[in-house]
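FYI - complex with 3-acetylpyridine adenine dinucleotide, inputs then prediction.
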Amino acid sequence: MSAPTAPDEAPTREVDAVVIGAGFSGLYMNYRLRDTMGLDVAVIEAGSGVGGTWYWNRYPGARCDSESYMYCFAFDKDLMQEWDWSSKYPEQPEILRYLSHVADRFDLRRNIQFDTRVTAAHFDEDANRWTVKTDQGETIRCSYLITGIGCLSAGQIPNFPGRDTFGGEAYHTGAWPHEGVDFTGKRVAVIGTGSSGVQSIPVIAKQADRLFVFQRTAQYAIPARHGTVDRAVLDEVKLDYDAIYDKARWSLGGFPYDIVDRSVYSVDDEEREKIFEQAWQEGGFRFVFNSFSDLRLSVEGSEMAAEFIRRKIRETVHDPAVADKLVPTDHPFGSKRTLIDTDYFETYNRPNVTLVDLKAEPLAEITPTGVRTEAGDYDVDIIVYATGFDAMTGPFARMDIRGAGGERLVDKWAAGPLTYLGLMVAGFPNLFMVTGPGSPSVLTNMPIAIEQHVDLVANTIAHLSQRGLDRIEPDPAAETAWVEHVNELAKPTMFMHANSWYLGANIPGKPRVFMPYAGGMSTYRTRCNEVVANGYEGFVLSKVG
Ligand code: N01
């Protein structure tokens, strides 16, 4: 259905719902609203294909830190049975193939508009509808607006002096060229040693002639113990998918692991070392879940894990001076996103790799020929910015979102994001955020968090429709209480002890507020279920039209 338009205007489309993004969130949201509820849905996607994060982050070595059998959708049992993962930690091309398969299998592409960015979304109070504008000049009006824009989709390249003068090739890990980058025979700079840097550095080092790694903060990293998936393991998992997913849904971090209930103080030094060593050999997040339960909340516990990892770094890196620079001492283990690596520290034993410690020689500028620090020049052909993202709120700030009375979301969030359940914002009726700030999102295995949110959104819209209602938004008091709760939960955690993107500390001028919900997936799910059972407690539901 199209509304009448002035002759020089692009036609306005009218739909029930607009979904922004076609990654895990947008694909499943499309399926729920369109195929299980029969709504007219327009999905708007900036990329030329589905995949979201996995469409954009194609840097060498990109893969997920969640094990493959649990990094997928669980809404369709046949889908789970028919898809075979080949790697223990799924690599970017394989995840993209999986999401493409999901899109094909459920015919999800036919209402996705690719190569289109949402530029603005304004709430029209009289009509009780959102007016969405795209960079293709289109206007779409809808009853419900749902963002599936990811938490880490707004790439951030620091505004280094001279950045634009560089004469070589420069790439951000989160916007990697689809045709790939050939590092053969090249001198390469990688700036940044977070997850993206730690994954890409060992792979680039193998190809490049020379690699300079510019490190500002030394990192703790746990070996992934990556490998192919054993057919027998895959078959075993498939037999038990219901139980595995149920366990993940009702866990702290969305993983089906048994979490040991054991304090670092419950054992003597020798036994503690043995337990850390065993967990280290298992690798990945199991190092945290299978060692001691108080690493997250006890500074002393975290320090014991930190000391163990420091010893491992020193054992791995041959040159003690390089090891010294790689050993993290300025933040506790677990205060930043835990890094999972494959041969990261080993890479510094290669003769073609040089670690540049930006604490000792701060980065002064980017020059036409490379990177200049206060100690000298590093001439390179390619610069890789592994410098992260304007996380969680950044993707929202890139759109002009205005709620009731024309209030701008960026203004409302000027001192930090305000949400109820990380799902909705007071004053922005019928706008739902999948894995928004204030929800567990980035502290969990994402597909588990996404499915919970998408189901909650779909069920909420169905609830409104069944009762002849057409408007929902949080009660401002409930929103305030939720934000306080989110802040309170973060206070005792290690997360408050480092400058991380969780706190917005990587973006100059961004308010320092812990953005995700640190109470765990299970607690959060329980709270959401209670809210619904109590008649959408904390929300105001009404009929306008
Ligand atoms: O970004 P980051 P990322 N000068 O912000 C450095 C997810 N992810 O893309 O630590 C010099 O973590 C910065 O230094 P410092 C995952 O959730 C997941 O790596 O701020 N350096 C840091 O070293 C992850 O946490 C996966 O001192 C500067 C780096 O750049 C999130 O995405 C894979 C600088 C940025 O690290 C983000 O990871 C990849 C400056 N001005 C990503 N500014 C998997 O699941 C920043 N840096 C595997």
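The pocket of 3-acetylpyridine adenine dinucleotide is lined by residues 63-65, 152, 158, 173, 191-197, 199, 216-217, 337, 358, 363, 386-389, 442, 501, 506 (CB under 6 Å). The CA atoms of residues 213 and 355 lie 5 Å apart.
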